[in-house]
Amino acid sequence: MIRVLIVDDHHVVRRGLLFFLKTQKDIEVVGEAKNGLEAVELVEALQPDIVLMDLVMPEMDGISATRKIKSKWPAINILMLTSFSDKDHVLPALEAGAAGYQLKDIEPDDLVNSIRQIMSGENILHPVANSQLEKTLREEENLPHVKNTLTPREKDVLAELTKGKSNREIASSLFVTEKTVKTHISNIFTKLEVQDRTQAALYAVKHGLTEVSGPIEN
């Protein structure tokens, strides 16, 4: 079972999500919170697998709550579910540690699929949010010296990672073992000073190391 915590300041939204998710055999809604402060408290008490997190809420917003949750419980995944697709919300949410970013107009089946994908280790972006993110990152200034910190093979791995490929797919593409890929990814995280694949992909695009060709996935 995928244990989900719903966080949204609108009762109607929480009820709607609860009603639909309860029909899924592999998903269990373990709790609800109406703001980020309650979300942090419930995460500590319930230890869900995934938190469906709204962005704009009273007392503590979704980005602040995500940052607190990820700092204390890094294994818990955050899926942002919001109405905002602009750069001022998407990028901070991902930098805070969100594994996914979806808009509230998403089809229910697509939302469930996103939950399952994140549970399996993928990182999901709504196409609109992804488009906004790519545009924003490509407009920012590149830092050429960063390119010199990675070996040629690490750059190859980073390029494949940014395309959304899994370790197995990267290993197959580069004709190396999965263990070797894991080692390269660990080195990439250390050199770029990032914590996960999403942040590595964002860093790569932001600093001109590679380009995003589609939704960022694990």
Task: List the topology elements.
Layout: E1 2-7, H1 11-21, E2 27-33, H2 36-46, E3 50-53, H3 62-72, E4 77-82, H4 87-96, E5 100-103, H5 108-119, E6 124-125, H6 127-139, H7 152-162, H8 167-174, H9 178-192, H10 197-206
Parallel strand pairs: 1-2, 1-3, 3-4, 4-5, 5-6
Helix pairs in contact: 2-3, 3-4, 7-8, 7-9, 7-10, 8-9
Strand order of the largest sheet: 2-1-3-4-5-6
CATH superfamily of the largest domain: Response regulator
Q: Enumerate the spans where pLDDT stays under 50 for 5 or more consecutive residues.
A: 211-218
What fold name stands as the CATH topology of the largest domain?
Answer: Rossmann fold
GO cellular component, one term: cytoplasm
Pfam families: GerE, Response_reg
InterPro entries: CheY-like_superfamily, NreC/VraR/RcsB-like_REC, Sig_transdc_resp-reg_C-effctor, Sig_transdc_resp-reg_receiver, Tscrpt_reg_LuxR_C, WalR-like
Subcellular location: Cytoplasm
Fold and architecture overview:
This protein is α/β, with parallel strands linked by helices. The protein has helices at 11-21, 36-46, 62-72, 87-96, 108-119, 127-139, 152-162, 167-174, 178-192, 197-206; strands spanning 2-7, 27-33, 50-53, 77-82, 100-103, 124-125. Strands 2-1-3-4-5-6 form a six-stranded parallel sheet, with helices on both faces. α3 links the parallel β3 (50-53) and β4 (77-82). The longest helix has 15 residues, at 178-192. The chain is globular, with a radius of gyration of 17 Å. Residues 211-218 have low confidence and may be disordered.
